[in-house]
Amino acid sequence: MAKHFLAFDLGAESGRALLGILEDGKLRLEEMHRFANPNGRMNGRLQWSLLGQWEHLKEGLRKAVAAGFDGKNKKIDGIGVDTWGVDFGLLNKDGALLGNPIHYRDSWTDTAMAEVFTKVPREKVFEQTGTQLMQFNTLFQLHAMNKAYPNLLKSAEKLLFVPDLFHYLFTGVAKAEFSIASTSQMYNMQTNEWAIGLLDSLGLPSNILPPVVPSGTIIGNLKPEVMAETGSGEVPVIAPAGHDTGSAVAAVPATGNSWCYISSGTWSLMGVELDKPIISAKSLQYNYTNEGGVGGSIRFLKNIMGMWLVQECRRFWIKEGHDHSYAELTSMAERAVSTALIDPDHQPFLSPGNMVPKIDEFCKKTGQRVPTTRGEYVRTCVESLALTYRRTLEGLEDILGRKLDTIHIVGGGTQNELLNQMTADACGRTVVAGPVEATAIGNILVQAMAVGAVKSIDEARKVVRESFNVKTYEPRDTAKWDAMWKKFTSLKKV
3-state DSSP call for residue 300? Predict the structure, then answer.
């Protein structure tokens, strides 16, 4: 008998509600709802529109009900939400929300890491968490909040990461799911508990941290008010891997252990799946992270700026009156010549706005010709991203002490065939691209595991291989890319 699961997948640019129909070992998807995920500034802070997001989630459920999944004709066997990491909302003692979640790209954390390290050295922070040191991690956001809004933090009874916050709105139950908690720089990956001593050392409240549950935990049933508003029957809400990368990795159609993955979207997250965290001087040196995965696994990976570079260039050009689709920009890049290389992880690229002038400035400071056409800018971004993947791959192999033969790319970035081929060329590895909707697929399959419809992560990946097409890219013209790699690694720090 078919099982039906509704996955809500929210990314930095957009969100979607996809219905998964699991039957006879195969999965097919039906899109219920797709929406933009805007953000904006209010009172000087870049914030997410939580009410707008919540209304879209309910709309996705309404559309599923309208399609016949009302609990009478056909039922939904589970609902789960995944989102980006680190951001959070606060509840007071009455369970009321204390404002919108602040966007991780807000400037309030610009000095937070340096300030934290004056109290707890960076080596000790990494030792206690195993998390890649990035200024927007929850730990540094809490430090910034304690400076900017101390009374708000004092009013908080509970902190919930964004997917956990939506599960709370659906059910009234406040829990933190393992994968999303592990992105925070507040969770000890070796002891599997909150790093309370770290928070105490920084004067940050640890009493607001919720209980942590594994991926695939049934959180509770929909609240009566949500059922009444959407017309749904009683539906269990299941925490998938709440961090979107955790769900995406669950849908990597790989076999064996000689592979790594790139979850490709606004961010690119490149890494491997392990049984235990690697918290060492070398992993700190490379600034890799240990994050939770399905079945208690570890996603040992690196966060890379990803398609954000192209997205921000596109937004810059739209303001100038040039509104090109991503497909058009990719086509321009294919026809363009190589002009310059940039470091995608260059700090000024992190914040929104003026990406094109920022690239110009980087090129000038590194003695390179500034791109002159939109195609050249996009080609600069994509080539540099492919070379960053090579840098990350070499770091992974150095730490692991073994070669990785295949790179699996999943997520929206798989649609960029230019980048996929460049990745194969730059890294000298076979690239397998697909599926596109890996995050929602992983979300659905983790839900299926929770109710026993899928028995294991290996079976889940078999379902992916049986259900979705992938495309393979083999390396070409590696000598050219070796020369580009030499130039890339010689770029001076600016």
Answer: strand
Phi then psi for residue 118, to 5 deg, are: -75, -20
Is residue 244 flagged as an active site residue? yes
Looking from the CA of 397 toward its CB, the CA atoms found within 13 Å total 16
Domains 3-241 and 252-267+305-434+455-494 share a fold: yes
Single out the catalytic residue among 82, 244, 343, 425: 244
CATH number for the region 252-267+305-434+455-494 comes to: 3.30.420.40
Domain 3-241 has CATH 3.30.420.40: yes
Nearest to 340 by CA among 315, 365, 316: 365
How far is CA 494 from each of CA 32, 348, 379, 438, rounded to the nearest angstrom? 46, 10, 21, 36
Domain parsing of the chain, residue ranges: 3-241, 252-267+305-434+455-494
Q: Tokens at residue 355, please?
A: 């990406």
Query: CA of 463: how far to CAs of 3, 19, 26, 254, 448, in Å?
Result: 14, 16, 5, 11, 11
Give the contacts of 412 (CB within 8 A, at least 6 positions apart).
Answer: 11, 264, 265, 307, 436
Q: At what angle do helices 308-319 and 374-400 cross, to 10 degrees?
A: 160
Q: Quote the distance between the C-alpha of residue 421 and its chain's center.
A: 22
**460 contacts 445 by C-beta, under 8 angstroms:** yes
Closest CA to 189 of 121, 63, 277, 104: 277
Element (H, E) at 447: helix 438-450
Beta bridge partners of 436: none
SS3 state at 255: coil
Handedness of CA 280, 284, 286, 288 (dihedral sign): positive
Do residues 50 and 96 make contact, with C-beta atoms less than 8 angstroms apart? no
Average pLDDT, 10 consecutive residues per value, the chain (494 residues): 96 96 98 96 96 98 94 91 98 96 97 98 98 97 97 97 98 98 98 98 98 98 97 96 98 96 96 98 97 98 96 98 97 97 96 97 97 98 98 98 98 95 98 98 98 98 98 96 97 86
